[in-house]
Write a structure and sequence with these properties.
There is one protein chain. The protein is an all-alpha fold. It contains three helices and no strands. The radius of gyration is 16 Å and the shape is globular.
Length: 96
């Protein structure tokens, strides 16, 4: 049986900052994001991708479709984190 991933951030206490980043990144991508509940952007992403995600139980949702939603959000967040790290390195005289 596959082990379920933890929904907690790797760094304790970073959840609020990650939610803020998620909201900003998805807002920059043109999604309507609630400042109070940035996690709800997954429903807008799902609608945009044509994935039938609804609040509550989604047992009918295929793994592939769930991955499309998470990939859209997580991929954008990772790209932004890499961009931020590169900028910090460049500012410190590191490599670009």
């Amino acid at each position: 049986m596959a082990r379920r991933r933890s929904r907690r951030a790797a760094v304790p206490g970073s959840e609020r900052s990650l939610d803020k980043l998620k909201g900003q990144v998805m807002r920059d991508a043109g999604y309507n994001v609630s400042a109070d509940q940035p996690n709800l952007v997954k429903y807008e992403v799902a609608r945009t991708l044509g994935v039938p995600l609804e609040p509550g139980y989604n047992g009918q949702l295929r793994t592939e479709d769930a991955g499309k939603i998470g990939g859209e959000i997580g991929g954008r967040m990772v790209r932004e984190l890499v961009r931020m790290a590169q900028k910090q390195l460049a500012e410190r005289g590191g490599t670009k």
